[in-house]
Amino acid sequence: MNSNGDRSPLRARVKGPVFAGLVFLILQVVTAPVHAQDCGISNWSQATNLDSSFTGVQGPNNRRYGGPCGLRVQLDGQARFLTDQSPLNEPTFIARFYVHLDAVSSTDPVWLYSADNGAEDLIQVWYNTPSAGDLTLSARDTAGTLHDLTFANIAPGWHSVEFVWESAASADIRFALSSDDPEADLVTTIDTSGLLVANASVGNLNAATGGSFDFDDYVSRRISRPGRLLVADADDDSNINIADIIAIADEIEALGFAPGQPDCDEDGEIDPTDVACVVTILDNQ
Ligand SMILES: [Ca+2]
Ligand SMILES: [Ca+2]
Ligand SMILES: [Ca+2]
């Protein structure tokens, strides 16, 4: 990305789990357990005006989508971002992350995400672009032209953002918002031949001003789409049942932070409406 001064050859430190070569990196803002002091950014290769003090558990200073912790990014006129240098000139690149944008107080464009080849950005994700409340992915073609895919006037609350990118003469670039249905993808077909992804960055990339946003649960891969986390799986056992209600209730009563996804209605708060949301899911099972 343009504001990242590091153009040196990439010798990645892969610090996330690796599964059979398919997943080359999983970056949670956090690693497990449930204590505030365990929140951090150590999975990332590089940090610019961000450190672990910007991570934290659910509360006034942070939100999380899944797991105990999340990252809050201030929009205070400073470029603040985390960079993952583990991609190694990838001809295919798939990423998914969660953002909560309700506290963005300006209608000016916010550059949230970038994947670059060491010289120029190949994929950018912008909020408030082209209009206030819109989320846009821009993909660069081999000739240098940017091609935009836009979800207009997105809803409040947490959003999963996923894209699929490849280097090909006729590449389908796919962009998904809060959906696992490929039919709902926005798609543009462009010439990306010769382009390779070497870094990815997330944060306030354009030194935007006005509020803050929350970020969580980043994963990037060479193949296969990660998809969305299981909503309401508060105890993180891959099922929805009464134990999830107990985990949410424990968090509401300050008995501990749920290890999974307790924010059933995905509004950014953990409160009794999330218990009711799980009850509704169980009633409909
Ligand atoms: Ca998290
Ligand atoms: Ca569960
Ligand atoms: Ca909620």
Strand content: 25-35%
Oligomer: single chain
DSSP strand count: 15
Question: What is the H/E order?
Answer: EEEEEEEEEEEEEEEHH
- Report how far apart the termini are: 45 Å
Overall average residue pLDDT: 89
Give every kind of bound small molecule, once each: calcium ion
Which of globular, elongated, flat, extended, rod-shaped describes the shape? Answer: globular
**Helicity level:** under 10%
CATH hierarchy, class of the largest domain: Mainly Beta
Q: C-alpha Rg, in Å?
A: 18 Å
Number of helices: 2
- CATH architectural name of the largest domain: Sandwich
Q: Output the structural class.
A: mainly beta
Largest sheet geometry: 8 strands, antiparallel
Question: What does this entry look like structurally?
Answer:
- The protein is mainly beta and 285 residues long.
- The chain folds into two domains: 25-221, Jelly Rolls; 242-283, no CATH class.
- Helix content is 8%, strand content 34%.
- It contains two helices and 15 strands.
- It has helices at residues 242-252, 272-283; strands at 25-27, 46-48, 55-57, 69-76, 80-84, 92-100, 110-116, 121-127, 135-140, 146-151, 158-166, 171-177, 186-190, 199-204, 209-221.
- The strands form two sheets. Strands 1, 3, 4, 6, 11, 12, 13 and 15 form an eight-stranded antiparallel sheet that branches.
- One calcium ion is lined by residues 233, 235, 237, 239-241, 243-244.
- Residues 28-30, 64, 66-67, 69-70, 216-217 line the site of one calcium ion (CA).
